[in-house]
Write a structure and sequence with these properties.
By secondary structure, the chain is mostly helical. The protein has one domain: MetI-like (MetI-like fold), CATH 1.10.3720. About 80% of the residues lie in helices and about 0% in strands. The chain contains twelve helices and no strands. Helix 1 packs parallel to helix 7. It starts with a helix and ends in a 5-residue tail after the last helix.
């Protein structure tokens, strides 16, 4: 692979890692709230949260263009447009990968028996202590699963990142966009090397995913 190809891989890995680091903590309160609450608005919140799973990437990318563009709400708040920048890619990836972080955590939190939480509250445990000593040990496997899903999904993104970031080498050209460009230019050998690398990474991710699915919870 050329230096430009390695740069595209590095950018994709950076994007995937940052997406994991930022998205998992952001989604955790939402997953906990949805797992504990029963109300009319819950189904609507769930539907909106899982919408990126079924929307075509072009539709999601189009509305993100309107949101993040120079005439969108961010501009009205006095913020600069983040289109065709790494920051724009990150925001789009956070939204696009949200369901992959939410689903494992929501499933795990829903399985936590209320009496565990009640017992900790009776012992006057603070919220952060309840999370670190009760919730997280039980949901540790779910957190690993969510991180793996977010990482692999972000690593292979194409449609949304192309619409939001374009194809600027060293700035917004992720590996999936670089492969597309090489195929357009009939550079099949380079495209094959990059594609095969993604196949291997995806296969390793799936193998780890299977192990996590069959692991037993801590409690």
């Amino acid at each position: 692979m050329s230096d430009a190809d390695l740069l595209a891989f590095g950018l994709s890995l950076k994007l995937a890692l940052l997406c994991c680091v930022l998205l998992i903590p952001l989604v955790s309160p939402l997953a906990w709230w949805l797992s504990r609450r029963q109300h009319m608005g819950k189904q609507l919140v769930l539907a909106i949260s899982f919408l990126p799973l079924i929307l075509p990437p072009t539709v999601l990318g189009f509305y993100l263009l309107l949101l993040l563009g120079p005439h969108g709400p961010l501009h009205m708040l006095g913020l600069n447009s983040v289109l065709f920048s790494f920051e724009g890619l990150l925001i789009a990836s956070l939204i696009y990968s949200l369901p992959f972080a939410l689903q494992p955590l929501l499933s795990s939190f829903s399985m936590i028996e209320p009496h565990y939480i009640q017992a900790a509250q009776n012992l006057r445990a603070k919220p952060w202590q309840i999370f670190s000593r009760v919730i997280f040990p039980f949901s540790r496997r779910a957190y690993l699963l969510a991180a793996l899903l977010v990482f692999t999904h972000t690593l292979g993104e194409f449609g949304v990142v192309l619409m939001i970031g374009g194809n600027i080498p060293g700035q917004t050209q992720v590996v999936s966009v670089a492969i597309f460009e090489k195929v357009e230019n009939l550079q099949y050998a380079s495209a094959h090397v990059m594609s095969l690398t993604l196949v291997v990474l995806s296969l390793l991710g799936l193998l780890l995913l299977q192990r996590l699915k069959h692991a037993r919870p801590a409690l």
